[in-house]
TrEMBL record:
Occurrences of domain Glycosyltransferase subfamily 4-like N-terminal (ranges): 25-196
GO molecular function, a single term: glycosyltransferase activity
Membrane spanning stretches: none
UniProt keyword terms in alphabetical order: Glycosyltransferase, Transferase
Stretches assigned to the Glycosyl transferase family domain: 205-357
One GO biological process term: carbohydrate derivative biosynthetic process
Protein name as annotated: Glycosyl transferase
InterPro entries in the record: Glyco_trans_1 (IPR001296), Glyco_trans_4-like_N (IPR028098), Glycosyltransferase_grp1 (IPR050194)
Keyword GTP-binding: no
Pfam families the UniProt entry points to: Glyco_transf_4, Glycos_transf_1
Length: 400
């Protein structure tokens, strides 16, 4: 099958936060898995690096970069200006000797460009949003900083797709609230690289006292503030926060300073350590060094951090929402607490750190759950079946 994957953000990993895997790595792994299954896969993105070539062959699939907009990373809000041009570039490419049998848009910008390109064809379109503006706004409130055009454009995009792919059950509900029929929404969770994330291997150096690990970008809405406040109830343990800018830039990072000041103010400054950005290939060592991984973002669609921690055999304490609620089985692979309930979060962490046997049992169950339900092979297989379904049921559009 000929598969075209479209994402304006797929040209490079997100800058400034080495712990964020995000859309780029998701698409790269899906493309490689599909190519390994014998499909002809091409990834289309915007050229944002002057050193990048127009085309590349990577892990069995082809990457093509559109000369649209400035050859530099630009904010998402500015990318909206180039959606039509990106779509026209795609349509031109697909009018030549190679055209996809199915197009899969990623994130709302990539989806809009893909929809623009296929609007006068009979090529079916699948869309993964990765995050949904209305859902983010509901969870983050005043902390939501997405462009004003995003929510109405996402709603319009739902009317242009054959199937929308949700990464968690909360996202399924959100897409149906946006007007999609439930039969037009498929649940396909993200995968985990179990060759990289597993219980055996090196662990990052640590203190003798128990370690709680938090992974994610530094910013309001990522939940580190809740964890710092909860540490007053945890007792003698350290909280390691991995994420944000590189270590040498933490001192000048406003959110890092604010979190340190908060830790000092609530009396846990000596227990909280910010280590900055960690390359993704090194994250497994940090997961293995932890007794518990805490996942407390105010919004999470994929629950990637919780899955990677579980793959490394570490129990997770997380907010019962989004992808975290789907990944963590309460009282089996970890503990779920109500979002924003700092007191329950602190007491849950305290009890779990004191329960060696419980953590051991949760860790073993967590590894089994990931290997059974969250491998990239399973994700690619589900997408393959989905593509076959939409290609099989789409009929050529009659000329107006």
């Amino acid at each position: 099958m000929r598969v075209g994957l479209v994402c304006a953000h797929a040209a490079a990993p997100p800058s400034g936060d080495g712990t964020v895997v995000g859309t780029y790595q998701h698409i790269a792994r899906v493309a490689a898995e599909l190519a390994g299954r014998g499909h002809d896969v091409r990834v289309y993105t915007r050229r944002d690096d002057p050193e990048a070539t127009e085309t590349d062959i990577v892990d069995g699939y082809r990457v093509e970069r559109a000369p649209v907009g400035p050859v530099a990373p630009i904010p998402t809000a500015d990318l909206v200006l180039y959606v039509a041009a990106f779509g026209e570039w795609l349509a031109d490419r697909w009018s030549a000797d190679w055209a996809p049998e199915v197009v899969h848009g990623h994130y709302w910008i990539g989806g809009l460009a893909a929809a623009h390109a296929v609007r006068e064809t009979d090529i079916p379109m699948v869309q993964t949003f990765h995050s949904i503006g209305m859902e983010q706004l509901r969870h983050l409130g005043a902390q939501y900083d997405g462009p004003g055009t995003r929510i109405p454009l996402e709603r319009a995009l739902t009317r242009a797709v054959d199937i929308a792919v949700a990464q968690c059950n909360d996202e399924v509900d959100e897409l149906t609230r946006m007007g999609l029929q439930r039969t037009s929404v498929a649940m396909v969770p993200t995968g985990v690289d179990t060759d990289r994330f597993h219980p055996d291997g090196e662990a990052a150096p640590r203190e003798q006292r128990p370690r709680i690990l938090s992974v994610g970008g530094l910013g309001r809405g990522h939940g580190q503030e809740d964890l710092i406040r909860a540490m007053r109830l945890v007792g003698d343990a350290e909280l390691v926060i991995a994420g944000g800018p590189p270590t040498d830039r933490l001192a000048n990072h406003a959110e890092a300073r604010r979190l340190r000041e908060l830790a000092d103010r609530v009396g846990v400054g000596e227990q909280v350590h910010l280590v900055g950005a960690v390359p993704h290939e090194q994250m497994a060592t940090w997961y293995r060094s932890a007794d518990v991984v805490a996942c407390t973002p105010h919004y999470s669609s994929a629950g990637r951090v919780s899955l990677e921690a579980m793959a490394c055999g570490v129990p997770v304490v997380g907010y019962a929402m989004g992808g975290i609620a789907d990944a963590v089985v309460d009282e089996v692979t970890g503990k779920l607490v109500p979002p924003g309930d700092v007191r329950t979060l602190g007491m849950t962490l305290r009890r779990l750190l004191a329960d060696n046997a419980g953590r051991f049992a949760y860790g073993h169950a967590a590894v089994d759950r990931v290997r059974c339900s969250y491998t990239w092979e399973r994700t690619a297989s589900a997408l393959e079946r989905l593509y076959e379904r939409v290609v099989g049921r789409r009929r050529p559009v009659e000329a107006a």
